[in-house]
Amino acid sequence: MKKFLLLAVVAFFATSAFAQDYKNSIGLRVGYGAEVQYERHFSSDNYLEVNGGLYGFGNSFHANASYNWNLCEWDWTPSAGKWFLSAGVGGAVGTWGYKNAEGADRLGLQVGVLGDVAFGIRFNKPVTLSVDYRPTIYFLHDAWAHGFYGVGITCTYNF
Question: Most C-beta atoms within 10 A of its C-beta, which of 55, 108, 117, 144?
Fold first, then answer.
């Protein structure tokens, strides 16, 4: 049984390292905060992206999901990988810490919608590097959050 399990693990990593049709990605996005990012690719044209992390590296947490479409691909550097431009829409929820009028610490809830535009390169290795802009509008507190701060750099591992 141990040999079978070891063989299955080795086979999984070998096929994911050499396959060109990746279905999942996991990585890190850093901007005005840090997020863990997961992507599920349904086809070469569209994918679902889910993020969760700290906003502003403080006591605020947010999570969002967006459905994205690959708009363009270019073979500018075929020996390195394919360049892409994608865009999508989705929703966001989050919390943030603040002080009320009496000076007591409070925790607020935010719910909103977001847009996402990304430009990057999918290397021939199972790695993607991109720069994206994700503005978010929250409804509960009439906040334009992540506006200019919505710029981030993402690095994902594809498997």
Answer: 55
